[in-house]
Amino acid sequence: MRPTHRAGFTFIEIMVVIAVISVLLAIAITSAGRLRAATNEVAVINNLRTLVASLEAYRTVNSAYPATVGLNFRNSMYGANCLAATAPVPDFGPLSFCRVLDGTNPASVVQSYDYTYQAPVGGVTYQILARPLTANVSGTRSFYVNNTGITRHCTTNPRSATMNGMGVGPPPDNPITQGPTSPCN
């Protein structure tokens, strides 16, 4: 009698393959989340650098930074309603920031971070705080920059970071290059 030979996989073999694929997918998904957060943080640092350069250009032309009051930042930097016909000459800054940067308005969100711009009337100084919308998902750090142009970061509870005194007196002494020490309160 001839032995019968069946083609195909056993149930155990199929289950092992499914388990291996599941483990690989779990690793890939968590890596993708961390990669997204890191990408957002790099974008925030570059956005802050661009804003600093734009604000310095504005100060060079107008001898002061735009004031925080109401729509002054948006209108001063981009013109009313961000229209080309109302834009100042020269145009100051990236169009993605033609919004009210108050940290509470949904319009202050750019790439999963909300931005807050503060400057006193008279415009001798300014400060910008960028916080992740969801801590440890859209980013693991908050970022802060003032008129010195030095970007600082906060890792402890980045969503609750505030400008609580930051920019008043000497700035916190931890530029972005020094590691995870925290200027944020």
What is this entry, summarized?
With 185 residues, the chain is an alpha+beta fold. The chain has one domain. It is built from two helices and five strands.
Keywords:
single chain, 185 residues, alpha+beta, five-stranded antiparallel sheet, 32% helix, elongated, disordered C terminus
Walkthrough of the structure:
- There is one protein chain.
- With 185 residues, the protein is α+β, with helices and mostly antiparallel strands.
- It has one domain.
- The protein is 32% helix and 12% strand.
- The protein is built from 2 helices and 5 strands.
- It has a 5-stranded antiparallel beta sheet with strand order 1-2-3-4-5, covered by helices on one side.
- A hairpin with a 2-residue loop joins strand 1 and strand 2.
- It is elongated.
- The N and C termini lie far apart (83 Å).
Total strand segments:
5
Approximate strand percentage: 5-15%
Radius of gyration: 24 Å
* Uncertain residue segments: 165-175, 177-183
Q: Tally the helices: what do you get?
A: 2
One letter per element, helices H and strands E, the order comes to HHEEEEE
Query: Termini, distance in Å?
Result: 83 Å
Mean pLDDT: 77
- Helix and strand composition category: alpha+beta
State the helical fraction: 25-40%
Assembly classification: single chain
Strand order of the largest sheet: 1-2-3-4-5
Outline the biggest β-sheet. Answer: 5 strands, antiparallel
Domain unit count:
1
Dominant shape: elongated
SSE arrangement:
Elements: H1 11-62, H2 72-78, E1 109-110, E2 113-118, E3 127-132, E4 142-146, E5 151-154
Antiparallel strand pairs: 1-2, 2-3, 3-4, 4-5
